[in-house]
Amino acid sequence: MKFIYSAALLVMASFTLMANPFNHKERLQADQQAIKEAAKNYIVSQHISSKELMAGALHAKLVKRTYWAAGKGQEFIMETSRETMLKVAESYNKSGDKFPETPRVEIEILDIDQRVASVKLSADDWIDYMHLVKTAQGQWQILNVLWQYHEISKHK
User: Which of 5, 96, 141, 151 is paired with 53 by a 20 to 30 Å CA distance?
Assistant: First the structure.
């Protein structure tokens, strides 16, 4: 009886070990897709002026930052909130003249670990480094953004 019990445990453990790599790979692919989708929605929402698309991409505690030069060359860190980014998405490109006809959108996932990820988004005029978090509901959302123009003289 002890032998049968041990053999059954061994078989169950084997199935668990065989199943986990597949589940892990499948879960990783789903996470990668959702992370890229959040980053894409962030930029596309600005292209098409969609507050709703931006809202889904951003965490409630989002903070977006960049450095800025004041009038006398003093630098400071400019912070943008989620609420401001929702307004940006709604109004920045309302006239349709802020982006080229085929905008540049390059998304590179730099790292994923459980419920956090780092992403590099290269757009036409700027670059965004993003931190995303996977919420308790399983949705990937952008929590932090650090950005700069490619032409850093624009930071004035």
Answer: 151
DSSP class per residue in 4-49: HHHHHHHHHHHHHHHHHHHHHHHHHHHHHHHHHHHHHHHHHHHHTT
Q: For residues 40 and 5, give the distance between their C-alpha atoms in angstroms, rounded to a whole number.
A: 52
Give CA–CA dist 55/44, Å, rounded: 12
- What is the widest separation between alpha-carbon atoms in the chain? 84
- CA-CA distance, 91 to 95, in Å (whole number)? 8
**Cα 97 to Cα 99: distance, rounded to the nearest angstrom:** 6
Q: Kindly give the confidence (pLDDT) of every residue in the chain, 156 residues in length, as a single tens digit, with 9 standing for 90 and above.
A: 554 544 444 444 444 444 455 698 999 999 999 999 999 999 999 999 999 999 999 999 999 999 999 878 789 999 999 999 999 999 999 999 999 999 999 999 999 999 999 999 999 999 999 999 999 999 999 999 999 999 999 998
Q: Are 47 and 127 in contact (CB under 8 A)?
A: no
**Alpha-helix residue ranges (DSSP H) falling in the chain:** 2-47, 51-57, 82-91
Q: Which residues are CB-neighbours of 37 under 8 A, at least 6 positions away?
A: 140
